[in-house]
Structures are given as C-alpha cells and as structure tokens.
Amino acid sequence: MATMSPAQQAPGQVRQITVLLYSDDVTVRDAVRLAVGRRPARDVEVAAWRECATQSAVVEAVENQHFDVLILDGEATPMGGMGLCRELKDEIFHCPPVLVLTGRPQDGWLAAWSLADEVVPHPIDPAALAAAVSGLARSGAPA
Question: pLDDT tens-digit profile of 32-60?
C-alpha cells in the first residue's frame, strides 16, 4: 500500500503507515503496540507492524522493505536501540524516522547521540508514545 508524502496528503485523509518495532522483550513489544494502537491519531493509522527481536533482523528489514517509522527499544540486549539507531542513521540512505525508547528520562542525551528523531522514556506513556509516532508519521521525511 503506497503512502502519501505530507505534501500529497489531502486534508482529512488518513495516512496509512508501516512501523518496525525492535525489542528483545516480547512484553515491551506488546506494550508498545497496545500504547500506539491501530489509530494513534485521527489522521494516522498503523496499517502494518513488523516486529524484530535482533539487530540483524532490523538491518535486513530496513534495507529490504519500506517503513514509515522505526521504534527501537534502548534497553534491548545485546544491541540496544540507541546504538542500533546510530548504526541505521549512519549506514542506511534515507533512514526512516526513528523513535527510541529510553530506560529513563535522564537518558535523553544518549538518544541525542544516537540521532533519534524522537525519544519516549520507560515506563511507556501511551499518550506520549502515540503523539510521537503520529508526529513522525506526519513529518514523512527521513532525518
């Protein structure tokens, strides 16, 4: 399903997005999907999720498929989402916008180093996460 760029988006039209979600912890992945939901905003709908539990699966997916937003768990092991974000931003041409989940609010400086486009700390605040995903979807442009 094709996604319209922000310039092509007609007023009142719903933007369908695909989201890649990385965490080695299935409970974190479940919590993120539940918090974002199917419709994080009136004008944004998640058409598809792609879940990955390893760094290599994320890199392969991002190289071979289109995603509108990437959500990476900064607390994942053995490769944390912040290190993975930095790797993707450095190595993937037109890397999609990335949201990093940090272990605590004080980790924002690490997320800045990672070149993340958005940061949401644990524990997950559903409203903040949905707003961040919607904002990235609306931006439509890789950083």
Answer: 999 999 999 999 999 999 999 999 999 99
Q: Would residue 5 count as lying in a domain?
A: no
Q: Distance from CA of residue 9 to its chain's centroid?
A: 21
The residues facing 17 across adjacent strands are: 46
The CATH code of the domain that includes 54 is 3.40.50.2300
Which residues neighbour 62 within 8 Å (Cβ) at sequence distance 6 or greater? 20, 70, 88, 92, 95, 96
Is 78 inside a domain boundary?
A: yes
Distance CA 82, CA 56 (A): 15
CA–CA distances in Å: residue 99 to residues 13, 17, 36, 43: 24, 14, 12, 19
For residue 88, give the nearest of 108, 60, 110 by alpha carbon.
Answer: 60
CA atoms of 69 and 46, how far apart (whole Å): 10
In a domain, 36, yes or no: yes
